[in-house]
Protein backbone atom coordinates (compact mmCIF):
# COMPACT_ATOMS: atom_id res chain seq x y z
CA UNK A 1 0.00 0.00 0.00
CA UNK A 2 1.33 3.45 -0.89
CA UNK A 3 0.55 6.77 0.66
CA UNK A 4 0.49 10.23 -0.83
CA UNK A 5 0.34 13.72 0.66
CA UNK A 6 -2.65 15.77 -0.40
CA UNK A 7 -3.18 19.54 -0.23
CA UNK A 8 -1.64 21.08 2.86
CA UNK A 9 -3.07 23.91 4.96
CA UNK A 10 -1.08 26.55 6.85
CA UNK A 11 -2.12 28.79 9.72
CA UNK A 12 -0.30 31.22 12.02
CA UNK A 13 -0.93 30.97 15.73
CA UNK A 14 0.17 33.32 18.52
CA UNK A 15 0.85 31.91 21.95
CA UNK A 16 1.97 33.71 25.10
CA UNK A 17 3.50 32.73 28.41
CA UNK A 18 4.88 34.83 31.26
CA UNK A 19 8.16 35.57 29.49
CA UNK A 20 7.35 36.09 25.82
CA UNK A 21 4.86 35.89 23.00
CA UNK A 22 5.62 33.46 20.18
CA UNK A 23 4.14 33.24 16.68
CA UNK A 24 4.08 29.78 15.15
CA UNK A 25 3.55 28.90 11.50
CA UNK A 26 1.65 25.59 11.62
CA UNK A 27 1.27 23.39 8.56
CA UNK A 28 -1.20 20.48 8.38
CA UNK A 29 -0.35 17.79 5.85
CA UNK A 30 -3.06 15.10 5.39
CA UNK A 31 -1.70 11.80 4.08
CA UNK A 32 -3.98 9.43 2.01
CA UNK A 33 -3.62 5.80 1.19
CA UNK A 34 -4.40 4.19 -2.21
CA UNK A 35 -8.11 4.26 -1.54
CA UNK A 36 -8.15 7.99 -0.87
CA UNK A 37 -8.72 7.57 2.84
CA UNK A 38 -6.81 9.95 5.11
CA UNK A 39 -4.70 7.78 7.34
CA UNK A 40 -2.45 10.38 8.91
CA UNK A 41 -2.31 14.12 9.51
CA UNK A 42 1.20 15.48 9.88
CA UNK A 43 1.65 18.70 11.84
CA UNK A 44 4.73 20.83 11.30
CA UNK A 45 5.47 23.94 13.37
CA UNK A 46 7.99 26.73 12.76
CA UNK A 47 8.68 29.56 15.22
CA UNK A 48 8.59 32.76 13.12
CA UNK A 49 8.50 35.17 16.06
CA UNK A 50 11.82 36.84 15.24
CA UNK A 51 10.93 37.29 11.57
CA UNK A 52 7.55 38.83 12.42
CA UNK A 53 9.13 41.10 15.01
CA UNK A 54 11.71 42.35 12.52
CA UNK A 55 9.01 42.93 9.90
CA UNK A 56 6.98 44.96 12.40
CA UNK A 57 10.03 46.99 13.46
CA UNK A 58 10.91 47.74 9.84
CA UNK A 59 7.38 48.99 9.17
CA UNK A 60 7.53 51.20 12.27
CA UNK A 61 10.84 52.72 11.18
CA UNK A 62 9.46 53.39 7.71
CA UNK A 63 6.41 55.08 9.22
CA UNK A 64 8.60 57.19 11.49
CA UNK A 65 10.70 58.29 8.53
CA UNK A 66 7.55 59.32 6.67
CA UNK A 67 6.18 61.14 9.71
CA UNK A 68 9.50 62.95 10.14
CA UNK A 69 9.43 64.22 6.56
CA UNK A 70 5.80 65.28 6.94
CA UNK A 71 6.49 67.01 10.26
CA UNK A 72 9.26 69.05 8.65
CA UNK A 73 6.92 70.28 5.93
CA UNK A 74 4.17 71.10 8.44
CA UNK A 75 6.63 72.97 10.67
CA UNK A 76 7.85 75.13 7.78
CA UNK A 77 4.26 75.95 6.82
CA UNK A 78 3.48 76.88 10.42
CA UNK A 79 6.42 79.28 10.47
CA UNK A 80 5.11 80.98 7.35
CA UNK A 81 1.65 81.18 8.93
CA UNK A 82 2.83 82.57 12.25
CA UNK A 83 5.05 85.31 10.77
CA UNK A 84 2.19 87.54 9.50
CA UNK A 85 0.20 87.03 12.72
CA UNK A 86 3.09 88.31 14.81
CA UNK A 87 3.86 91.08 12.34
CA UNK A 88 0.30 92.37 12.08
CA UNK A 89 -0.13 92.31 15.87
CA UNK A 90 3.02 94.40 16.26
CA UNK A 91 1.93 96.90 13.58
CA UNK A 92 -1.51 97.29 15.16
CA UNK A 93 0.05 98.07 18.53
CA UNK A 94 2.26 100.73 16.95
CA UNK A 95 -0.32 102.32 14.68
CA UNK A 96 -3.45 102.25 16.86
CA UNK A 97 -2.34 104.76 19.41
CA UNK A 98 -5.86 105.57 20.61
CA UNK A 99 -6.77 102.06 21.81
CA UNK A 100 -7.46 101.38 25.46
CA UNK A 101 -5.09 99.49 27.74
CA UNK A 102 -7.05 96.21 27.57
CA UNK A 103 -6.92 96.14 23.76
CA UNK A 104 -3.22 97.03 23.86
CA UNK A 105 -2.54 94.12 26.25
CA UNK A 106 -4.52 91.70 24.08
CA UNK A 107 -2.50 92.67 21.00
CA UNK A 108 0.70 92.28 22.98
CA UNK A 109 -0.46 88.85 24.16
CA UNK A 110 -1.26 87.87 20.57
CA UNK A 111 2.21 88.92 19.42
CA UNK A 112 4.05 87.19 22.27
CA UNK A 113 2.02 83.99 21.84
CA UNK A 114 2.79 83.93 18.11
CA UNK A 115 6.48 84.46 18.88
CA UNK A 116 6.51 81.62 21.42
CA UNK A 117 4.82 79.31 18.93
CA UNK A 118 7.35 80.32 16.28
CA UNK A 119 10.24 79.58 18.66
CA UNK A 120 8.77 76.15 19.40
CA UNK A 121 8.39 75.29 15.72
CA UNK A 122 11.91 76.57 15.02
CA UNK A 123 13.23 74.15 17.64
CA UNK A 124 11.44 71.27 15.93
CA UNK A 125 12.79 72.26 12.52
CA UNK A 126 16.31 72.58 13.93
CA UNK A 127 15.99 69.14 15.48
CA UNK A 128 14.66 67.54 12.29
CA UNK A 129 17.27 69.14 10.04
CA UNK A 130 20.25 68.99 12.38
CA UNK A 131 23.47 67.66 10.89
CA UNK A 132 25.62 64.84 12.16
CA UNK A 133 28.89 65.25 14.00
CA UNK A 134 29.00 69.05 14.38
CA UNK A 135 31.04 69.17 17.58
CA UNK A 136 31.50 72.58 19.17
CA UNK A 137 32.17 74.04 22.59
CA UNK A 138 28.80 74.03 24.34
CA UNK A 139 27.50 75.80 27.37
CA UNK A 140 24.78 73.35 28.30
CA UNK A 141 22.42 75.84 29.98
CA UNK A 142 20.97 77.07 26.69
CA UNK A 143 20.24 73.52 25.56
CA UNK A 144 18.62 72.67 28.89
CA UNK A 145 16.55 75.85 28.69
CA UNK A 146 15.25 74.88 25.23
CA UNK A 147 14.31 71.39 26.45
CA UNK A 148 12.54 72.92 29.45
CA UNK A 149 10.57 75.33 27.25
CA UNK A 150 9.51 72.52 24.93
CA UNK A 151 8.31 70.40 27.85
CA UNK A 152 6.35 73.26 29.37
CA UNK A 153 4.70 73.98 26.01
CA UNK A 154 3.76 70.40 25.12
CA UNK A 155 3.56 68.23 28.26
CA UNK A 156 0.20 67.88 30.07
CA UNK A 157 -0.50 70.18 33.00
CA UNK A 158 -0.67 67.12 35.28
CA UNK A 159 3.12 66.81 35.04
CA UNK A 160 5.03 69.28 37.18
CA UNK A 161 8.38 70.22 35.63
CA UNK A 162 11.17 71.10 38.05
CA UNK A 163 14.67 72.28 37.15
CA UNK A 164 17.86 72.68 39.16
CA UNK A 165 21.05 73.82 37.42
CA UNK A 166 24.34 74.59 39.13
CA UNK A 167 25.54 78.15 38.66
CA UNK A 168 28.90 77.49 36.95
CA UNK A 169 28.44 74.41 34.81
CA UNK A 170 31.55 73.20 33.04
CA UNK A 171 31.45 73.43 29.23
CA UNK A 172 31.54 70.33 27.05
CA UNK A 173 32.48 69.52 23.48
CA UNK A 174 29.46 68.08 21.70
CA UNK A 175 26.85 68.12 18.98
CA UNK A 176 23.92 70.23 20.17
CA UNK A 177 21.32 68.52 17.98
CA UNK A 178 22.37 65.03 19.05
CA UNK A 179 22.37 65.93 22.76
CA UNK A 180 18.98 67.61 22.31
CA UNK A 181 17.74 64.28 20.93
CA UNK A 182 19.10 62.42 23.97
CA UNK A 183 17.44 64.73 26.50
CA UNK A 184 14.18 64.90 24.59
CA UNK A 185 13.98 61.11 24.45
CA UNK A 186 14.59 60.78 28.19
CA UNK A 187 11.97 63.43 28.95
CA UNK A 188 9.41 61.78 26.68
CA UNK A 189 10.00 58.44 28.38
CA UNK A 190 9.51 60.15 31.75
CA UNK A 191 6.25 61.68 30.53
CA UNK A 192 4.98 58.30 29.30
CA UNK A 193 5.81 56.74 32.68
CA UNK A 194 3.42 59.20 34.38
CA UNK A 195 0.08 58.92 32.55
CA UNK A 196 -1.76 60.13 35.66
CA UNK A 197 0.69 62.96 36.29
CA UNK A 198 3.72 63.41 38.52
CA UNK A 199 6.99 65.30 38.79
CA UNK A 200 9.66 65.45 36.08
CA UNK A 201 12.93 66.88 37.32
CA UNK A 202 15.72 68.12 35.03
CA UNK A 203 19.01 68.99 36.70
CA UNK A 204 22.68 69.49 35.86
CA UNK A 205 25.83 69.63 37.96
CA UNK A 206 29.59 69.30 37.80
CA UNK A 207 31.09 66.08 39.14
CA UNK A 208 34.62 64.81 39.65
CA UNK A 209 34.79 61.02 39.35
CA UNK A 210 37.62 59.14 41.02
CA UNK A 211 38.49 55.49 40.52
CA UNK A 212 37.38 53.20 42.10
CA UNK A 213 33.75 54.24 42.01
CA UNK A 214 30.28 52.70 41.91
CA UNK A 215 29.82 53.76 38.27
CA UNK A 216 31.05 50.74 36.37
CA UNK A 217 31.56 52.50 33.01
CA UNK A 218 33.20 55.63 34.40
CA UNK A 219 36.81 56.68 34.02
CA UNK A 220 38.26 59.17 36.44
CA UNK A 221 37.92 62.79 35.44
CA UNK A 222 35.54 65.75 35.27
CA UNK A 223 31.98 65.21 34.06
CA UNK A 224 28.98 67.36 33.42
CA UNK A 225 26.06 65.28 34.70
CA UNK A 226 22.54 65.90 33.38
CA UNK A 227 19.87 64.06 35.34
CA UNK A 228 16.32 63.35 34.19
CA UNK A 229 14.13 61.82 36.89
CA UNK A 230 10.44 61.09 37.26
CA UNK A 231 7.98 59.83 39.84
CA UNK A 232 6.40 57.35 37.43
CA UNK A 233 5.84 53.62 37.40
CA UNK A 234 9.51 52.67 37.29
CA UNK A 235 11.22 49.90 35.33
CA UNK A 236 10.92 46.27 36.49
CA UNK A 237 14.24 44.83 37.63
CA UNK A 238 13.92 41.91 35.21
CA UNK A 239 14.00 44.28 32.23
CA UNK A 240 16.34 46.99 33.52
CA UNK A 241 19.40 45.39 31.92
CA UNK A 242 17.68 45.27 28.51
CA UNK A 243 16.44 48.84 28.10
CA UNK A 244 19.38 49.95 25.94
CA UNK A 245 19.05 47.03 23.53
CA UNK A 246 17.86 48.04 20.03
CA UNK A 247 14.12 47.47 19.52
CA UNK A 248 13.53 46.48 23.15
CA UNK A 249 10.50 48.25 24.59
CA UNK A 250 7.93 47.67 27.30
CA UNK A 251 5.44 49.98 25.58
CA UNK A 252 2.53 48.90 23.43
CA UNK A 253 3.37 48.30 19.74
CA UNK A 254 1.79 51.60 18.69
CA UNK A 255 3.56 53.63 21.38
CA UNK A 256 7.26 52.90 20.96
CA UNK A 257 9.87 51.43 18.64
CA UNK A 258 12.52 50.49 21.20
CA UNK A 259 15.12 52.64 19.42
CA UNK A 260 15.12 55.78 21.58
CA UNK A 261 17.30 54.63 24.48
CA UNK A 262 19.57 52.62 22.18
CA UNK A 263 20.23 55.71 20.07
CA UNK A 264 20.66 57.85 23.17
CA UNK A 265 23.32 55.48 24.48
CA UNK A 266 25.13 55.50 21.11
CA UNK A 267 25.18 59.31 21.06
CA UNK A 268 26.43 59.67 24.62
CA UNK A 269 29.14 57.04 24.13
CA UNK A 270 30.26 58.77 20.91
CA UNK A 271 30.79 61.87 23.10
CA UNK A 272 33.02 59.84 25.42
CA UNK A 273 30.38 59.59 28.12
CA UNK A 274 27.95 57.07 29.54
CA UNK A 275 24.44 56.80 30.98
CA UNK A 276 23.69 55.61 34.50
CA UNK A 277 20.16 54.54 35.41
CA UNK A 278 18.40 53.80 38.68
CA UNK A 279 14.82 52.63 38.85
CA UNK A 280 12.42 50.71 41.01
CA UNK A 281 8.82 49.71 40.36
CA UNK A 282 6.34 52.33 41.56
CA UNK A 283 9.28 54.47 42.76
CA UNK A 284 10.24 56.30 39.59
CA UNK A 285 13.29 56.33 37.36
CA UNK A 286 16.45 58.42 37.22
CA UNK A 287 18.74 58.67 34.20
CA UNK A 288 22.13 60.32 34.61
CA UNK A 289 23.90 61.44 31.42
CA UNK A 290 27.64 61.78 32.09
CA UNK A 291 29.52 63.90 29.54
CA UNK A 292 33.27 64.61 29.74
CA UNK A 293 33.71 68.23 30.76
CA UNK A 294 36.26 70.79 29.66
CA UNK A 295 37.70 73.54 31.75
CA UNK A 296 37.32 76.94 30.08
CA UNK A 297 41.05 77.09 29.24
CA UNK A 298 41.15 73.70 27.50
CA UNK A 299 41.22 73.75 23.67
CA UNK A 300 38.43 72.15 21.66
CA UNK A 301 39.33 69.73 18.88
CA UNK A 302 38.24 70.72 15.40
CA UNK A 303 35.27 68.73 14.04
CA UNK A 304 36.43 65.72 12.04
UniProtKB/TrEMBL annotation:
PAC domain boundaries: 7-60
Key words, A-Z: ATP-binding, Kinase, Nucleotide-binding, Transferase, Two-component regulatory system
Catalytic activity: ATP + protein L-histidine = ADP + protein N-phospho-L-histidine
Pfam families, A to Z: HATPase_c (PF02518)
GO MF term list: ATP binding; phosphorelay sensor kinase activity
UniProt cross-references to PANTHER family, sorted A to Z: C4-DICARBOXYLATE TRANSPORT SENSOR PROTEIN DCTB, SENSOR HISTIDINE KINASE
Protein name stated in the entry: histidine kinase
